[in-house]
Amino acid sequence: MSEAATELLKTPLHKHHVEAGAQMVEYAGWDMPLRYTSVQEEHRQVRRSGGMFDVSHMARFEFKGLHARRMLERLCTRRISDMQHGQARYTLLLNERGGVKDDALVYRLDDDEFMMVANGANRLKLLAHFDDVQQGAEYKVKLTDKTLKTAMVAMQGPKVMELISTVSKEVPSLKKYRFTVKNLMVIKLIVSRTGYTGEDGVEVILPSAMVDTAMKLLLKDVDRDDPDAVVKPIGLAARDTLRLEAGMPLYGHELSEERDALSSGLGFAMTLDKDGDEHGEAFIGLDALRAIQAAGGPKRRLVELRSSEKRTPRQGMPVLIGDEPSGEVTSGCQSPTLECGIAMAYVDAGQSEVGTAVEIDAGRARISAEIVPMPFYKAPKPS
Fold this sequence. Notes:
By secondary structure, this protein is α+β, with helices and mostly antiparallel strands. It is built from eight helices and 20 strands. The model is unreliable at 1-5 (pLDDT under 50).
């Protein structure tokens, strides 16, 4: 299928979604499962046991060559050179103004071999960005877009690692943000202990041609009809409520090119003392972030809001503090776990303290809420 085609892209698991009765929707140019049953039921399945997500729409890029590490140092806000083989690291990719082009995970496979997983909606934009950066500095890097040749599946939930332990001793022993390359029959898998729900679990990348075999061998316990199944298929809608409870930002909501990265509160994902040295390059946007810091910091900050009211906060709703405009909601829902309204919002930096009372303008009514600590939900530690 050409990039110019208007037909929606289909993941290698598409037929499995249709056979399972999923409600399919367009998302980032892909035909994706929104839900199989209800958002609440699927959300609670992940929190109490486990869920399987098709995340094959996520962009997957391979960087190989003499300057792969240096190029990634230039692209990424985190240091790449000190990553160990088998380590994955969350990072941001910025424009020159310090706005966020995307957030991503970088995997180090070897000294000069890396993989990046980014948002599917930004795949073509990032490819153009990578090309500009590579041409400008003449990095000797072979960049390959692996998205359409691979599939990516996430399994998340408190019982997932126990289930995986029945077929692998190595995977459950991985630390968080580590990965291993496994061979399952003739299938080469990259299995990482990462995720986007706030629960423990894994993400698996494998060749598209091997998906049907993998579904039989690796994902045989995914059963939508068994009420006691450890793992069930989960759609995009529950994935969004899960990540919101876990306080994880989403590009196009909390992250954008128009908003500086410092406002997001993702300080751990930005190495601001990362200057060009023998390890690589200062990242794009670093000067802009330093200028914002020198001027007193960002004007707005990302906060989490909690409300006991039945009305649901939604993206774009104004946030008022002391009856005066202070910011706006970027994501909101009724939390199935907490059974209350929750939201992420940007508000004026001087009014972003935990405990501050706010009102969310829902049009005909206002929703009373309070700024609370991040995240809303933390998974219980295994006993």
